[in-house]
Q: What sequence folds into this?
């Protein structure tokens, strides 16, 4: 009798664990505020690192408009090179953008997985109701 109760308990626990929704947040999950702050600090870093280059090119404006102007100047003047600080700041921005893109993909992938699990649960509930 004890063996039977033990066997039933083990079966119930194992089936519960097998169908459990165990979704831990990723270890590197960042809040939106952290990401926004990281972007702001990157923008300031680029502004300070590229200030000399922007002054050399004579470009005005802010953000993308300014960087487009710098790129156009660079195309027209083949001997012009960005200084190393500006180049590395822009490279770190591209890496930051890639990280954000990958995080979004992982987040969407996790949502799809969760939705699929929800659909499976709903199907199980419908099957149980049909049996009754």
A:
């Amino acid at each position: 009798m004890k063996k039977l109760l033990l066997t039933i308990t083990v079966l119930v626990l194992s089936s519960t664990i097998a169908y459990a929704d165990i979704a831990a947040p990723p270890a590197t999950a960042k809040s939106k505020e952290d990401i926004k702050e990281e972007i702001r600090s990157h923008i300031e870093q680029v502004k300070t690192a590229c200030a000399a280059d922007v002054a050399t090119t004579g470009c005005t404006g802010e953000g993308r408009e300014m960087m487009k102007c710098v790129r156009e100047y660079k195309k027209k003047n083949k001997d012009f090179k960005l200084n190393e600080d500006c180049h590395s700041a822009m490279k770190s921005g591209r890496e930051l953008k890639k990280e954000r893109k990958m995080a979004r993909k992982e987040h969407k992938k996790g949502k799809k997985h969760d939705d699929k699990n929800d659909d499976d649960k709903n199907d199980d509930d419908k099957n149980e109701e049909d049996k009754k």
